[in-house]
Automatic annotation (TrEMBL):
Phylogenetic classification of the source organism: Eukaryota, Fungi, Dikarya, Ascomycota, Pezizomycotina
Region annotation (Disordered) ranges: 1-41
CC terms in the record's Gene Ontology section: membrane; mitochondrion
Organism of derivation: Botryosphaeria parva (strain UCR-NP2)
Bilayer-spanning residue ranges: 202-222, 252-271, 292-312
Predominant localisation class: membrane
Compartmental location: Membrane
Descriptive protein name: Putative phosphatidyl synthase protein
Family, similarity comment: Belongs to the CDP-alcohol phosphatidyltransferase class-I family.
Molecular function per GO: cardiolipin synthase (CMP-forming)
Topology in the lipid bilayer: Multi-pass membrane protein
Length: 327
C-alpha cells in the first residue's frame, strides 16, 4: 500500500506537470517576456508636445528703453506730416530731428546694454519707413520734392511693407490667429538692413532735413509756406551765386537719393540674408524667403515703371508749356 501510494502520487505529479502551461511558472514567464511599447500612444504624446511647444512660444520683453524710443518715432511720424501740411516748418524740422536722433540713440543703447530684441529689429525699420513715407508724401504734396522721387521713396517702402506682411504671416508659428499675428513678443522673422539701404536712409534724411530747413531760413522768399516749386527751382530763381550753388547741391542730392533708393529696393529682392526667418524647417524657410523676395522684386519693379512714366509725363508737359510760351 505504501508503494502504491507513492505510485499514485507520482502519477498525480506527472499529470500536474503535463497540465502546467509551457514556459515555466507564471512568474518566470512574465520575466522572460519583453513588454511591447504602445506606439500609437507615443506618437500622440509627441504630437501633443509639439502643439504645446507652438502654443507656448518664447515671449520677449519688449518694453525697454530702445523699443520705447522706437515706438515714439511711430507716433511722431504722422505729427510731422500734419505740421508740414499746416506750414509749421520749424516744429516739423524739430520733431524730424528728434526722430533722427532717437534712431541713432536707441540702437546704441540696445547694443551697449544688450537690449536687442527681435521686435526691435522689425519695428525700428518700420518706424523709419513710416516717417520717411509720411514726410516725403507731405513734402511732395506741397511741391517741395519732385513727384518721381517721391514715388520711388514711397514705393520702395510700400514694397518692403507688403513683403513684411507676408513674412510675418508665413513665419508665424501655429496657430495663426489675428491676435498672435500682432503680438510682436512672438518673434518669427528678423530683418537685417542692407549696407546700401543704410546709406540710402542717411541720404534721404539729409535731403528731407535740407528741404525742411529751407523754408525756415528763407523767410524773405517763402515766409509763410513752402512754394509750389521745388527747393532747387526756388533757389535757382533767386539768382545769387550762393543760391545757384545750393540749388545744384540739392539737385545732385535728389539724383543720388533716387539712384540709391532703386539700388536698395532691389537689394532686398536679391540678397538672401536680408531677412532671417526663424524656425527649424530649412526647406520651408527657403521657400518662404524666395516668395518674399519675389514680392519685393515684382512690386518695386512696378513702382520704378510708374516713376519713369510720371517723369516722362512731366517732361512732355514742360515741353508743351515751353512751346506754348514761345508762341
Amino acid at each position: 500500500m505504501r508503494g502504491e501510494g507513492r505510485l499514485f502520487a507520482t502519477s498525480r505529479g506527472r499529470r500536474a506537470a503535463d497540465d502546467r502551461p509551457p514556459g515555466g511558472p507564471p512568474g518566470d514567464r512574465n520575466r522572460n517576456q519583453t513588454p511591447q511599447p504602445k506606439k500609437p500612444l507615443l506618437e500622440k504624446t509627441k504630437e501633443l508636445r509639439k502643439q504645446l511647444k507652438s502654443l507656448t512660444a518664447t515671449h520677449e520683453k519688449i518694453w525697454n528703453v530702445p523699443n520705447v524710443l522706437t515706438f515714439s518715432r511711430l507716433v511722431a511720424a504722422p505729427v510731422v506730416g500734419s505740421l508740414i501740411l499746416h506750414d509749421q516748418h520749424a516744429w516739423a524740422l524739430g520733431l524730424f530731428a528728434y526722430a533722427g536722433i532717437t534712431d541713432l540713440v536707441d540702437g546704441w543703447i540696445a547694443r551697449r546694454w544688450q537690449l536687442q530684441t527681435v521686435v526691435g529689429s522689425v519695428v525700428d525699420p518700420m518706424a523709419d519707413k513710416l516717417l520717411m513715407a509720411i514726410t516725403v508724401g507731405c513734402l511732395a504734396a506741397k511741391g517741395a520734392l519732385p513727384g518721381p522721387l517721391a514715388i520711388l521713396i514711397f514705393g520702395r517702402d510700400a514694397s518692403l511693407a507688403i513683403a513684411a506682411i507676408y513674412y510675418r504671416y508665413a513665419s508665424l508659428p501655429s496657430p495663426k490667429t489675428f491676435g498672435r499675428y500682432w503680438d510682436f513678443s512672438l518673434p518669427s522673422a528678423e530683418v537685417h538692413p542692407t549696407t546700401v539701404s543704410k546709406f540710402n536712409t542717411f541720404l534721404q534724411l539729409a535731403l528731407i532735413g535740407l528741404t525742411l530747413l529751407f523754408p525756415v531760413l528763407a523767410h524773405s522768399s517763402a515766409p509763410d509756406a513752402i512754394t509750389d516749386a521745388t527747393v532747387s527751382d526756388t533757389l535757382a530763381a533767386e539768382g545769387t551765386t550762393d543760391a545757384r550753388t545750393l540749388s545744384t547741391a540739392v539737385t545732385a542730392l535728389q539724383v543720388l537719393v533716387g539712384a540709391t533708393t532703386v539700388w536698395s529696393g532691389f537689394s532686398y529682392a536679391i540678397l538672401k540674408d536680408a531677412v532671417t526667418i526663424l524656425g527649424s524647417d530649412e526647406a520651408l524657410k527657403k521657400k518662404q524667403g524666395a516668395r518674399g523676395r519675389a514680392i519685393i522684386g515684382v512690386s518695386f519693379a512696378l513702382v520704378c515703371a510708374g516713376a519713369v512714366g510720371w517723369a516722362m509725363r512731366g517732361q512732355r508737359r514742360e515741353e508743351a508749356d515751353q512751346r506754348r510760351s514761345g508762341k
